[in-house]
Amino acid sequence: MRLHAYKIQLKQEIKPDDRPKRVKFATFMLNAIDEDETFLRRIFSSDEATFYVNGCVNRHNCRIWGTQQPNEIHEYVRGSPKVNVWCGLLYDRVIGPFFLSESTITGVVYLDLFEQYVFPQIGTFKQETVSRVIFMQDRAPPHFSCFVTDVLNEIP
Hints:
Layout: H1 18-35, E1 43-52, E2 82-90, E3 93-100, H2 107-123, E4 134-136, H3 146-154
Parallel strand pairs: 1-4
Antiparallel strand pairs: 1-2, 2-3
């Protein structure tokens, strides 16, 4: 019958009030760029990923494209050693990678990373100080823990 299995893709529903929010954000960005030519240079994006020693990959983020479905099977080994890697981007530089020895990234671990490694790295550049940097983060729980948000909100 020549049928193929497809992975279901989940997409976020776009609601009627989303369009005005997007226009508002785009307008804000354009105005911010017009008012401050260094605005985009101060946006700091970062993320972390987990790498397993046994080569296991996150199947939700991995696609294999081909004319035929691969017939390989990889056994998943529970409890395989892993390493968490964090990296940040700030305009013209990469901060990191930073290898986390902890098996789970918590708010405390994430804050320690920022205080011990990220803030000093940003502070070493004379043109940028931590207080002028805009931290862009996704909604991962460690990023929004009370510890992290309190420290980021208190930066002068």
